[in-house]
Amino acid sequence: MLWLPDVFGYAWALPQLIKQAGLEYFFTIKIGWSQYNRMPYDTFWWQGLDGTRVLTHFSTTPEANGYGASTYNSDATPAQVIGTWTNFQQKELHHNLLMAFGYGDGGGGPTREMLENIREMAAFPATPKICQMDVGDLFQAIESKAGHHLPTWNGELYLELHRGTYTTQSRTKRANRKSEFRLHDAEFLSSLAVMLDPDYEYPVATLRHAWELVCLNQFHDIIPGSSIGQVYLESQKQHTEVQQTAQAVQDAALSANAGQLSNPSALESTQSLLIVNPTSFVRDDLAFWPGHLAEGHCLQSADGTRMLIQPTADGTWIAPGVLPPFSITPLTEAAGAVPLPDVELAVSPNLLENKFLRVELNDAGDITRIYDKVNGRDVLPQDAIANQFQAFEDRPLQWDAWDVDIFFEDKMWKSEPASSAKVIEAGPLRATLEVRRRILNSDYVQHISLYYHSTRLDFDTTIDWRERHILLKVAFPVDILSNVATYDIQWGNVQRATHRNTSWDWARFETCAHKWVDLSEGDYGVSLLNDCKYGHDIRDNSPLGGVMRISLLRSPTMPDPEADQGEHRFAYSLLPHAGSWGETTIAQAYALNDPLIVVLPYGQASALQPISLLTAEPANIVVETIKGAEDGNGMIVRFYESQRKRGLVRLHLGFKPGSAWRTNLLEENQDALELDGNTVTISVRPYEIVTLRLVPT
Q1: 376/508 same-domain check
Q2: 563 and 455 share one domain
Q3: What's this model's pTM, rounded to 2 decimal places?
Q4: Which of 66, 431, 579, 591 has the fewest CB atoms found within 10 Å of its own CB?
Q5: Same domain for 435 and 494?
Q6: pLDDT by residue (tens digit) across 238-283?
């Protein structure tokens, strides 16, 4: 039983996760609190993104105070028992309903009065018959009696309430995202170290403790931003501990990896850099090294190819070339001139341009044009302003930290003209403008960057937030006509309407996404990526285009009067592309969130050989996790299909496996897989999540 009574909406991938974790049933009540529309069913099969179905029941017990359709804190009064039956919509299918009683929201449990009421109502003629029983037995009874007749809900379970929780307490949301990726990287590097170094011991207990802290801080009143201020002081300390732990694990793993990859015949004076690609995508983005080369020296790959670089005041940008997935690639410092790139990269206070994009700004710092030179089209509608900060009066009717209400757009302010705009990086690999502006009482600085080889336009932002009861969004009008937009979610993606035809569309004026959103026509589209934000809206589908917005900050005063006051840093990127979204959008979103890692080798400096731990094909497969097995037997690889395609998946391994097993989420072996040398092949369905155990020889 997955028992989640008070969670603010459920992602479409959840049914598959429920089943793969060995659970059978799902219970909640919170969807009954939706503002405008009631779910048509209270007992139903919930069908997930991949087709997995799970038996679901919503309690219909009314709140004692009359608010909302349901509660998990019943007083077990006759009125609530009668209300449970009265509210239930499917009386013709079954009569077994669940009423959760006791002071659960606070831990008080049931009282003697509640238990006495239940005893008396067991045979009281004026109320439905009531008894206590195991919740698993209840669901089994529902399934056996009505399972074949129950309707199916195929889609996410969106709560039409508490939309502000996607944004409130942004520091904690950023810390959560960064902690997830830091641990992801540490697990991969530790797994590689186990394969290379027989003396390296995978830090199971250390990583488990770190993940426990991350999960603790994903409690439904911490990560949504609906706790008191003291909670967030403690949360920040715990996230700092997580990231320090992840860094220590990463350092130890890299030390072990470098020791095994070293070339003993190399000169000790040779200095190498290690470039780590911690994702499942082939990467060619830039890597930043907080150091500088000696004068008259360059970096070269193992085959002698010299790398393009761009020195800055804080370090060096490196173009390391094409990097394989889950790999460590050495670059060696050598005497010789740095090659001069043959690139088109221009920058001025009013212009950023490479061979792919031309980005024009006015004197106020507004982006007035983005022209896609390859595809020959303007990304923005005529006379539109992109990267526009919009501040809205944000005073929800109830639950300050929790809610954004639909009337928030009634009062809006925009940024003042830029106080300065100057070039701080002029290539050859990256051009950057620094733009300083103010919105209401808050000053912010943006570094707007364009790379020599990409259509991705980055916005690295630092803001000193001094507002209360203000919601801050950034808007990108785009010349795209589509009645749906695509949103990245956990283990997949979902399409949502860009119009407000029905009350169901109207209610979704603010929705959740993870690393990216996209608006595409048949042959062209625009993706909007982020590194720590979750609230989004994409709307106004018309011949004039649509508006894509990210919610950046909120400043409620209850229950934390100091919520989000002070300095924040975040990044987002605009990515125009030919065709619909695909692996390019997903790969660039991962690149923004999980940059290439650049380190000096640990211990003796030496020339190293490159290695890749794992490569997955085809490109619609996203390997989300590589980690040590919890029982110490081999390595766990977890991936998912990302583009609604079925077929064969091939994993090419950088080591010789002795056996391969398909497991569930609990890492329990299910089916043995055949091996073809270093390749594992398995068939997948659209959006299927697959977990494998790989045991080396």
Answers
A1: yes
A2: yes
A3: 0.96
A4: 66
A5: yes
A6: 999 999 999 999 999 999 988 776 655 544 456 789 999 999 999 9
Residues facing 318 on adjacent strands: 287, 309
Is residue 462 assigned to a domain? Answer: yes
Residues 450, 385 share a domain: yes
Q: Please determine, for residue 90, whether its predicted confidence score (pLDDT) is greater than 80.
A: yes
Give the pLDDT confidence of 482-534 residue by residue, as tens digits: 999 999 999 999 999 999 999 999 999 999 999 999 999 999 999 999 999 99
Sign of CA dihedral 522, 524, 530, 535: negative
Same domain, 587 and 618: no
Per annotation, catalytic residue among 6, 221, 460, 540: 6
Phi then psi for 150, rounded to 5 degrees?
-75, 145
The CA distance from 206 to 66, in Å, is 47
For the chain, the average pLDDT equals: 94
State which residues form the domain around 647. 613-697
Could you please report the per-residue DSSP string of 573-620?
EEEEEESS--HHHHHHHHHHHSPPEEEPPSSS---B--EESEEEESTT
516 & 654 share domain: no
Q: What separation, in Å, do the N-terminal and C-terminal C-alpha atoms of the chain show? A: 38
Q: What is the DSSP letter of 321?
A: -
What is the average pLDDT across 41-48? Answer: 98
6 counts as catalytic? yes
Domains of the chain: total:
3
In this structure, are 549 and 639 located in the same domain? Answer: no
What average pLDDT does this structure show over 97-112? 89
Mean pLDDT for 586-605 is 86
Contact 545, 477 (CB under 8 A): yes
Closest-CA residue to 637 (of 326, 328, 242, 277): 326
Res 339: pLDDT: 81
Distance between CA atoms of residues 483 and 487, nearest Å = 14
